[in-house]
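Batch 3, record 17
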Amino acid sequence: MSRSAASATRVVTANWDDPNVFGIDGYTAAGGYEGLRAALGMTPADVIDAVKTSGLRGRGGAGFPTGVKWSFVPQDTGKPTYVVANFDESEPGTFNNREIVEREPHRFLEGMAIAAYAVQSHLAFVYCRGEFLWPGEILEAAVRDAYGKGVFGDSVLGSGYALEVVIHRGAGAYICGEETALLSSLEGFRGQPRLRPPFPAVEGLYASPTLINNVETLANVPSILTEGPEWFAAIGTEKSPGTKVFSVSGKVERPGNYEAPMGTTLRTLLDEHAGGVLAGRRLKAWTPGGSSTQMLTEEHLDVPLDFESVAAAGSLLGTGAIIVMDETDCIVEATRRLVQFYAHESCGKCTPCREGTWWVSRVLARIQQGYGRSEDLPLLDELGENILFKAFCALADGAVSPIQSSLKYFRDEYETHIAERRCPFTGQGPGRGPGLEAEAGLREVLT
Amino acid sequence: MPVLSDDRRRVAETILARYPAGRERSAVLPLLYLVQSVEGRLTQDGLREVGELLGITTAEVEAVASFYTMLRLRPTGTHVVSVCTNLSCALRGAGDVFEAAHAAAEIEQGEETSADGMVTVHEEECLGACDAAPVVQVDFANHDRVTAQRMVELVEALRSGRVPEPSRGRAPKDFRDASRILAGVEERA
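Prediction for the assembled complex:
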């Protein structure tokens, strides 16, 4: 964790060139667990202040100041305090938490231990996405090694502070990434969200004070302790300090996770990291923060990717998951596929989300296949309005993002599908020529 | 004959012990995985035994189990092949991969498991590995950048009793073995 030029722009992935940091000995040799050691020499309140001063904000999507979140956990309730690390990474296009764990699991575990000490918790859960079979095994082995080295257990690094860690695997439900749904799931119920307030900080797991943080958020914490909060705050932008591990996928030459300072533009990520748009084609649309954030276009290539600037451009930084679509991709089909995801993952609690996402995916399917009607676009506008902010949690709002943003930027493409009665990209649909009678059966299904 | 043998019941005790006293219901997912590792799916008998371990009704257990896609209440093949078709993978040709999986497994329209019972093909949502799109999991072990041709090879290997090497990590022997790992049971069965 030296202050080399490279580490100035790489915090979470600073050691990724060194394969030895996968194991606890290599991680320790590279300076690992020194942040935890430093924290244990401070008062919990001073640790929280350091994280506050760093300006670190949650990397799971919402961007809430991490130190402030820690300070919300009360210390006088007489109940146990819990820490839950959210490793239920499932926002489409997002894969940085997985690679953090696959490359350097102890960095994340160290950050979690520091958080636990700061809020004086003695039991931390890692909620590991079920489909992450191998990353879960990595964590189980890393936790065993950490116990073996005295990092976890009755006396963390000999300090007298006790911390137990339990890996808990999910079972395939996107909604469990939502923190209150995650708590329902961890308590042994269906993963449905709960009303806030009370917030989890006050009444979370087992109705006790609970701190929930994302894996990338926690992986930043050790460096804040070793390098200092001012060092961290100097990276990125004033209001969005630090870096972001951007997950770049879709139509780029080199998909992957690329850590860059907050405020880096897509143009820079494409030019310097991801190798540009696939096959030299033209950028058409992209998500800045996963499928739940409003799509942007070529005109937004120079928007600084930080919380404020992306919001000002009409979208959200979200998880920093950039899905790139090029000029050969059908926006109606891309939107249909994303809305199908929300229809599948809706927990069913709220009618606007459960029914609305299903109906929207049907309408999008018929437009994409050339059976759209002129009244379908106002219908999609109306359905979007009737889902947005009408449901219990943000899953429904996330579903509306691709609907509204694709209609905003690519309405002409929808109109072409309807006017020509075919997809202009695949050529498929009744408008492609003769054979209308043969399509009658499909038409029945779709209308 | 109970679903959980005496040996498995001792494992169940260690699973229950992970959670604070009085909070044993938290163990419902790992216990369901444990039952699934024995049955290869979940049956009413298995659900009832989990309910008995937790002191809740079979209906309450089923209400939980039916919420999660990795817990299977339907007949399930020896191996489960999950093909991500979400946007990042779709942009890289996942549609063809999914169709190739169905064709290679000779799964009939509207079905999800091959007639020989060897392979269940499941259309999966984003698997969090979009850098390696299109992504396929065989019993939850990742296979990166799978082409339609590679998909056919994977399914044919599974149907002839061979488990292909995943891109990272180790391959479970089958869906039951994957369920055992998910239950957090350390020793290999």
